[in-house]
C-alpha cells in the first residue's frame, strides 16, 4: 500500500523537476537585518535595508545571496525527493522503464544542469569564504604590525585594509551569514 501511494506521487515530482524555474518570491519581511553572526569573523557590523534588491546579482548583495539560498534549497529539496523515489525501485533502469520521462534526454539534461549549478554554487561560496578569511587575517596582521612598527616607504604600495571594520568589510560579513548553509 505504501509503495503504491509513494509511486503515485512520482509523475508530479518528475514534472516539477522538468519544469523547474526559480521564481524569487519576496518574503513578508521586507527588511533584513544583519548583526554579529559569528565571533570569529572579527567583523562587527549591523546592516539594515528597507527595500529589497531588485536583482543586481552582485555576489556580496545580501538580498541576492538570500535569493541564491532559496534556489539552492529548492533544488536540494527536489533532488532529495528524487533520491527518495528512486529508492522505491530495484534499479534506475526499472524506474526509467516505468516512467519514460525519467530517462528522456530533456529530463536528464535538466537534472544534470541542476546538479552542476548546485555544486558550482557551493564550491564558489566555499572558495570566497576562505579568501575572505585570509584577507581578514592579512588585514589584522598588517594592523598589528603597523601598531608596533613605524611605517616604511614600501608600505604605501600595499593594499590598505585598515578600514575593514567599516563599510568595505560588509561583503565579508554578508558572506559569513550565508555560507554556513546546510
What would you note in describing this structure?
This protein is mainly alpha-helical. 56% of the residues lie in helices and 3% in strands. It is built from six helices and two strands. Residues 28-48, 163-169 and 178-182 have low confidence and may be disordered. It comes from Lygus hesperus. This is Mitogen-activated protein kinase kinase kinase N-terminal domain-containing protein. Residues 1-135 form the Mitogen-activated protein kinase kinase kinase N-terminal domain.
Task: Describe the structure concisely for a colleague.
This protein is mainly alpha-helical and about 180 residues long. The protein is built from 6 helices and 2 strands; from the N terminus they run H-H-E-E-H-H-H-H. The chain has helices at about 1-10, 10-20, 60-85, 90-100, 105-150, 170-180; strands spanning about 30-35, 45-50.
Amino acid at each position: 500500500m505504501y509503495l503504491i501511494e509513494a509511486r503515485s506521487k512520482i509523475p508530479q515530482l518528475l514534472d516539477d523537476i522538468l519544469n523547474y524555474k526559480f521564481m524569487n518570491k519576496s518574503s513578508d519581511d521586507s527588511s533584513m537585518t544583519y548583526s554579529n553572526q559569528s565571533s570569529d569573523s572579527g567583523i562587527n557590523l549591523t546592516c539594515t535595508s528597507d527595500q529589497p534588491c531588485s536583482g543586481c546579482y552582485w555576489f556580496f548583495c545580501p538580498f541576492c545571496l538570500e535569493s541564491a539560498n532559496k534556489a539552492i534549497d529548492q533544488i536540494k529539496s527536489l533532488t532529495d525527493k528524487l533520491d527518495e523515489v528512486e529508492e522505491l525501485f530495484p534499479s534506475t533502469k526499472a524506474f526509467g522503464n516505468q516512467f519514460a520521462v525519467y530517462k528522456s534526454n530533456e529530463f536528464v539534461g535538466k537534472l544534470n544542469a541542476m546538479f552542476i549549478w548546485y555544486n558550482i554554487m557551493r564550491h564558489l561560496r566555499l572558495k570566497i569564504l576562505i579568501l575572505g578569511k585570509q584577507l581578514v587575517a592579512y588585514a589584522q596582521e598588517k594592523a598589528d604590525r603597523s601598531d608596533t612598527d613605524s611605517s616604511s616607504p614600501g608600505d604605501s604600495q600595499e593594499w590598505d585594509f585598515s578600514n575593514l571594520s567599516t563599510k568595505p568589510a560588509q561583503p565579508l560579513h554578508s558572506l559569513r551569514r550565508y555560507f554556513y548553509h546546510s
